UniProtKB/TrEMBL annotation:
The modification 4-aspartylphosphate is found at D54. Residues 3-119 form the Response regulatory domain. Keywords: DNA-binding, Phosphoprotein, Transcription, Transcription regulation. Coiled coil: none annotated. It comes from Robertmurraya beringensis. Transmembrane segments: none annotated. Residues 409-507 form the HTH araC/xylS-type domain. Pfam families: GGDEF_2 (PF17853), HTH_18 (PF12833), Response_reg (PF00072). This is Response regulator.
Length: 511
């Protein structure tokens, strides 16, 4: 619907113009103003799309009114209506951006033609704006999906550098020299807070948010130049915990990993953050890994720093001999140090809890590791620890036995068929009932390629085929294969194929 405003000091002129417009454009809204001053007021109140402005009016003339209205409402278009066909008037009007003019008296046919041209321009501008807004929205949605997948693969696998480069550039990350991981534990029943956490991080323009798996939400945070690592992490942790008064709830906790200086080493910071969340009963609902002593002190020590990454990786790989040996070695340290039995049992519970947490990453659900009672001696504690580990091992075995042998082919075919859509690891995980991390791991092991690289290859191969059609533009192909920004598509294509889309097409068509 278009709004039209007729400005003229002569009522008969206004009424005549309105009659002509209402007959031709009955669906549009038309109002009148009797002078330039009133037109300025109505420009704000009525918000017209087009103003028919008489030039010669008592008080403020039409050109003066146009100048003031344009300053505050640049989208409004003007058609001047005048009995003076002089060059000076028209030159001034053109400078003010006036679209056309009508001479008094005007024929109805002239008015209809002139208005029709301006209305067509408005319609085209609206379509362009709507398309631009749609493309921008689609691009942000795609980037959000890519962001989630890239975080998952950076922390648990290797991701193709092209996607990291694109994210850094398009998500406007301020600094990539120093980075660290924050692991947010979101309690059951509060999963809806995920979107709030993601928006909070996005507002800072300093981090990427991964997928929510189980109750764990990893965030890769890039240190901002104007803040120290600790102050930035503390500030973000408090903001996240403030959402829905999370700091007063049970189950919310944030572990903060150590700073690293390359995305290639970001997994180490994640391992730090995971260990920092092993005791969620602390009064302060966030903790830095650096604040935990993991040397060999029996009052704190579970896993030495140089062993920690290997230990967590072996849990994911299901190396139960290794897991059992290391857990029992930790228990032996407590016994040798004559640690008070109740304290040792609590420390062992934290170790088992970490094992359970890592298993949940790959979709293995286990019962919460709990001792049936307070151990009476180290022999009983050792026996019950072995029993808990065995139950976890059995859950791991059962989980993988339940997976159908064709699951990977099912996922692969789904990606091939839907590569032009906005699909993500999280969406795939829900479709087949697996965790995003497990799908990423399974892709790497079974196909020797990462999920996001496979999706990219599918899209690029489809783009190559479409380029055989000279009638299709690169922009059309961009959208058809699943991208929402031609520049982004071109960069990915060149990274994968080593030449730009235009150069590839010229070679293909022999141009």
């Amino acid at each position: 619907m278009i709004k039209l405003l007729i400005v003229d000091d002569e009522q008969i002129e206004r009424e005549g113009m309105q009659a002509i417009l209402e007959k031709t454009y009955p669906e549009h809204i038309i109002q009148q103003a009797k002078n330039g001053k009133r037109a300025i007021q109505m420009a704000t109140e009525f918000q017209p799309d087009v103003i028919f402005m008489d030039i010669k009016m008592p008080g403020m003339n039409g050109l003066e009114a146009v100048e003031q209205i344009s300053a505050n409402h640049p989208h409004i278009k003007f058609i001047m209506v005048t009995a003076y066909d002089t060059f000076d008037y028209m030159r001034h009007a053109i400078k003010l951006g006036v679209k056309d003019y009508l001479l008094k008296p005007s024929k109805a046919s002239d008015i209809v033609v002139t208005v029709g041209k301006v209305l067509k321009q408005i319609e085209e501008e609206r379509k362009t704006l709507a398309l631009s807004q749609y493309q921008q929205s689609a691009l942000q949605k795609t980037l959000s999906l890519v962001e989630t997948d890239v975080v998952t693969q950076l922390l648990f696998d290797h991701v193709h550098e092209v996607h990291v480069d694109m994210l850094v550039e398009m998500l406007d990350i301020r600094s990539t020299n120093e980075m660290f991981v924050m692991l947010v534990l979101i309690p059951t029943g509060s999963e809806h807070e995920y979107s709030k956490v993601k928006e909070k991080v996005r507002q800072t323009k300093s981090g990427w948010v991964g997928a929510l798996y189980g109750n764990q939400l990893p965030i890769i945070v890039f240190r901002q130049p104007d803040k120290s690592y600790r102050s930035q992490a503390t500030s973000l942790a408090r903001e996240i915990l403030s959402l829905s008064h999370a700091q007063h709830g049970t189950g919310w906790f944030i572990g903060v990993g150590e700073v690293c200086y390359s995305l290639e080493h970001i997994r180490q910071s994640y391992q730090d953050a995971l260990v920092a969340t092993m005791d969620t009963t602390l009064p302060m609902k966030y903790r830095f890994y650096k604040d935990i002593s993991l040397s060999g002190d029996s009052s704190h020590g579970q896993i030495a720093p140089h062993q920690k990454k290997e230990f967590l990786d072996q849990i994911r790989l299901g190396n139960w001999n290794y897991i059992r040996l290391n857990v029992l070695n930790i228990l032996q340290v407590y016994e040798n140090d004559e640690t008070e039995l109740l304290q040792a049992q609590q420390r062992m519970l934290e170790v088992l809890w970490i094992v359970s947490r890592v298993l949940s990453e790959v979709g293995v659900e286990t019962d919460s590791p709990l001792y049936p009672s307070q151990a009476s001696d180290y022999r009983q504690l050792r026996l019950e620890t072995i029993q808990i580990l065995e139950r976890m091992r059995q859950s791991y075995v059962n989980h993988y036995e339940k997976l159908e042998s064709d699951t990977i082919q099912q996922i692969k075919q789904y990606i091939i068929d839907h590569s032009h859509e906005d699909i993500s690891l999280d969406a795939l995980a829900k479709k087949v009932g697996l965790s995003p991390i497990y799908i990423s791991k399974m892709f790497k092991e079974k196909l020797g390629i990462n999920y996001i690289d496979f999706l990219t290859e599918c899209r690029i191969e489809k783009a190559k085929k479409l380029m055989c059609d000279p009638e299709k533009s690169i922009k059309e192909i961009t959208f058809e294969v699943g991208y929402h920004d031609p520049n982004y598509f071109s960069k990915v294509f060149k990274k994968m194929v080593a030449v730009s889309p235009n150069k590839y097409r010229k070679t293909l068509l022999g141009i």
